[in-house]
Amino acid sequence: MLGRLSPEAKETLARFMQPSTIIGLSILVGIVALGVIVPLASPYDPYATSEDVLRPPLSEGPAWPYILGTDSLGRDLFTRIFYAVSIDLAVALVTVGLAVSIGMVIGLVSGYFGGILDSVLMRIMDVLISIPGFMLAIAVAAALGASLFNAMLAVAVVTIPIYARLMRGVTLSVKEQLYVTAAKEAGLSSFRILFRHILPNAMAPLIVQSTIELGNAIIYIASLSFIGLGAQEPQPEWGLMLSTGRKYLREAWWYPTFPGLMIFLVVLAFNLIGDGLRDALDPRLRGTLKIRRSIVWQLLKSET
Q1: Which of 202, 231, 239 is nearest to 100 (CA)?
Q2: Which helix (DSSP H) or strand (DSSP E) does residue 10 occupy?
Q3: Superfamily for the 2-48+57-303 domain
Q4: What would you measure as the largest C-alpha separation in the chain, in angstroms?
Q5: Do 183 and 245 meet the contact criterion of CB atoms below 8 Å apart?
Q6: Residue 56 carries which DSSP code?
Q7: Which of 68, 31, 57 has its CA nearest to residue 251?
Q8: Whole-number mean pLDDT of the chain?
């Protein structure tokens, strides 16, 4: 399979598959696999209330069959943590997808058309960026009401300017290329030029940024749930479990520790994968590697 790849594709794959990237992928794949298996195999109800659970609260520490202990209502913490994988990852994907879609369109339009439209759109983005991100997320979530869906919208609003400014900068560079000028001279519509010629050649930095922002989105969502503006009981969500568990840190260390560890591992995985994508897709790095190889080749030739 790899033998059919072009030399450029093989080089890109080699730059991506660094040890740190493999570690990140392994962590993410392992967590996702458990997030699929545990909800199907566990006999415990992650949404159980105090009336449904017969065990005393916090009665079981990490031991079989409750390998991560029980929570303040006597529910199995292992089941709730890995049931939350699908919720937290889905929320992060939807949040980043929404922010990328809106920010991408704003950046494309602003960078391509320029003028007054560019000034107005970028000043709006500047206003949003000037407000500390978490404070803006709190304000939006509080105005919309405490729920996981509203927390997603709040985080999307915070991160839209990141993608808008990134896409604008790439668009300003790409629209000066000869193939874009030729498309204009050929009479193609602005819509077709934007989405058929400019966007495909501007996706690499957007993909890298969105991968890293997946980790940031999880932190934002967990933080809003931690302060009561995100997920609500009995919904299993890492930030909410961490918020509830901190009250019992002295007598039940496992309660806040394992949800916090899950947040750490997932964010670490996304950052490692994002770094690998940046190394693989950055054209400047590709040029640097070629220059280095040329220098080494010349040195080897001179020695022989």
Answers
A1: 202
A2: helix 7-16
A3: MetI-like (1.10.3720.10)
A4: 82
A5: no
A6: P
A7: 57
A8: 83
Q: Span 233-259, mean pLDDT? A: 88
Q: Token match 């399979």: residue?
A: 1
CB proximity list for 284: less than 8 A, separation 6 or greater: none
For the chain, give me the number of helices (H) and strands (E)?
12, 0
66: left (phi over 0), alpha (psi -120 to 50) or beta: beta
pLDDT at 86 over 50: yes
The residue extents of the domains of the chain are: 2-48+57-303
The tokens 């640097």 sit on which residue? 288
What pTM, to 2 d.p., does this model score? 0.83
Task: Give the whole-angstrom CA distance, residue 291 versus residue 20.
Answer: 24
Q: What digits encode the pLDDT tens for the residues 56-83?
A: 666 667 778 888 888 888 888 999 999 9
70 DSSP β-pair partners? 76
* 152: enclosing H helix or E strand: helix 148-174
